[in-house]
Amino acid sequence: MNDNAVRGAGLVGSIAYAAAIGWLYVTQPQTAAQVTGGLASIIGTYRIDAQAFRDGLQFFRNDQFVEARAAFARADPAERDATTQFYIAYAWYRQGWGRLYNDDALFAKGMVAADKAIAAAPNGRVIVEDPNLQMHSADELKAELHRGVTREADDFNPLRVFRARK
Amino acid sequence: MTAVREAVVLPALFLTVTLAAMIEPGARTVVSGASLFSLVLGVMLFAALIRCGALDPARLLHASRGMLANANGFAVVVTLFAASSQVLWMLSPRSGLPMFFVGVLLFVQLLNTLVSSPDRVRLLRSIAVTLGSALVLKFVVLGALSAPGGSRTARVLTALFDAATFGSITQAPQDPAGGYIAFGAVALYLAGIALLPGRSAVSPRTELVPR
């Protein structure tokens, strides 16, 4: 192998390695699955586990939210799929929703998942056409979660007990 | 210096050191960048390497070299600076009096090295001792003081020590893996700077050469 080939390959390798370090710094992945999934999504080869997603959807529709999130997490281990993250956020919302009061901790986790869905979607637009849902976009869901954790005078309105879960 | 060493080995070594020094393992793993002060210390360390002949920039970047060779040399220079700053950041305590004193000690040590201009071998020894001491201080001494577990006696002593110093000594608990990663990063960094193309030794004496 001649010197120029070695030098060229070394330069390309160094730039790629430095870019990977920069990407790690920006995205702050927490698991190996997030690292590999993130790199796969950059080159467009990331796919969710369709069977696990269907399982998650089934659990979600039966109001088994903990099971649903486990299946969704298995379907999208890298947290790069907008639709799956949307359903995870929705699961946190439905589990945390209460007729008298909402569970702020669960709503906060829902907001984190909604942010991940928005970050994973092209142009940040997440639309899920599921007739079983009352909210179809991540923006609506995030706003509803945000309203849930915000203290306002309307929280003390006794008629709130008649409101319906979305 | 061979093309493989300049184009592949050195950048890969220094980028690996940079990456390892950025990782702070824990319940939530953080990939952290060097602070401004660490960048200043990195510049001083970089300057010391040049001044003491451990690195000869003309052997990496020079008009007589080809464009690709200069690009490789530039990659070595940039990655060396990044690794130097990041290693110093990794070895600096994160809060309180230890952060202040270690920062001052590293600054004074590097300033002293710059002024005294030791030869290449002495500089490498000096850097090894400085980085090794900082590693032991942060990951062994301060790590033991800040460890969450331990015996009841150890916890009482730590609480007393913390109270006596107004809580300015103890650090956030460190993951045990952090020390091993730091050890590996420092070892790789020292290997990397030992492999740098140095200035060829020139005898300061004047000798009569028979014709």
Describe the structure.
- The complex is a heterodimer of chains A (166) and B (211).
- Helices cover 62% and strands 0% of the residues of chain A.
- With 166 residues, chain A is mostly helical.
- Chain A has helices at 3-27, 32-42, 50-61, 65-75, 82-96, 104-120, 138-149.
- Chain A is elongated, with a radius of gyration of 20 Å.
- Chain A has a domain at 48-162: Serine Threonine Protein Phosphatase 5, Tetratricopeptide repeat, CATH 1.25.40.
- The N and C termini of chain A lie far apart (65 Å).
- In chain A, α4 packs antiparallel against α5 (82-96) and α5 (82-96) runs antiparallel to α6 (104-120).
- Chain B has one domain.
- Chain B has helices spanning 3-22, 36-51, 67-91, 96-116, 120-146, 152-164, 176-194; strands at 23-24, 30-31.
- In chain B, a hairpin with a 5-residue loop joins β1 (23-24) and β2 (30-31).
- The longest helix of chain B is centred in the middle third of the chain and has 27 residues, at 120-146.
- Chain B is elongated, with a radius of gyration of 20 Å.
In short:
The complex is a heterodimer of chains A (166) and B (211). Chain A has 166 residues and is an all-alpha fold. Chain A has helices spanning 3-27, 32-42, 50-61, 65-75, 82-96, 104-120, 138-149.
